[in-house]
Design brief:
single chain; mainly alpha; 84% helix
Length: 216
């Protein structure tokens, strides 16, 4: 009973910390927001699933201890950060180059977003955005090193990780559902190219912040 109580308190602590972390603006939020408005609900939800699955990667290397190697090897962590920053710049540059929709697309907003991005690409954008995020690496390292006791069995840690992946996916799916609602999308649809450009700038700024602060 005491062991169960220990794990329950640990779980509530993890869930609370994760709630604040996942709700704070970052690359994941920016990508889901962009896909919700630009491509519609289906693409945004699949992107959210990709983000949730990527959480399992962080959980896996944290359990295996590989994350500690990344953290304690400056050049490796720096290389990882630059790779993530380059990917965000790639996404941002594509968004910045967004062009106004044609007359036909403006007359049919639903048709304009339909199948504009494949399910596979939407999933991988979400997966890579989260999986290559060094901030997520540091978050999970802190989680497994500070909050989770060294006495906690790996089976319980894995259960924590599965919860974090599921909770992250559900949160962004909910966000996708709300942001891709008809009223929200129509509100931005007429100036969608400007919205894309703003989100592109935000992604590039996140990349710059990642390099200037995360590698120090």
């Amino acid at each position: 009973m005491s062991a169960f109580q220990q794990y329950w308190v640990e779980f509530l602590t993890i869930a609370t910390v994760h709630l604040f972390a996942v709700a704070s603006p970052g690359p994941d939020f920016a990508v889901v927001l962009k896909h919700s408005i630009s491509f519609g609900r289906r693409a945004a939800i699949i992107t959210s699933i990709g983000i949730g699955v990527a959480i399992l990667v962080h959980v896996a290397y944290s359990l295996l201890g590989i994350g500690i190697l990344i953290q304690t090897t400056p050049w490796l962590f720096a290389a990882f950060s630059y790779l993530a920053a380059a990917y965000l710049v790639y996404l941002g540059y594509g968004a910045v180059r967004s062009q106004p929709a044609s007359v036909e697309e403006n007359l049919s907003p639903e048709k304009a977003v339909e199948n504009y991005i494949s399910d596979k690409k939407a999933f991988w954008v979400g997966f890579l955005t989260n999986g290559l995020n060094p901030k997520a690496t540091l978050f999970f390292l802190s989680l497994f090193a500070v909050i989770i006791s060294t006495q906690t069995p790996n089976s319980v840690r894995l259960a924590y990780g599965l919860y974090l992946a599921l909770a992250t996916g559900v949160w962004f799916c909910f966000l996708s559902y709300f942001l891709s609602s008809k009223k929200v999308r129509q509100f931005i649809q007429k100036q969608s190219h400007w919205f894309d450009r703003v989100m592109g700038v935000i992604l590039i700024l996140l990349a710059i912040k990642l390099v200037t602060s995360g590698v120090q």
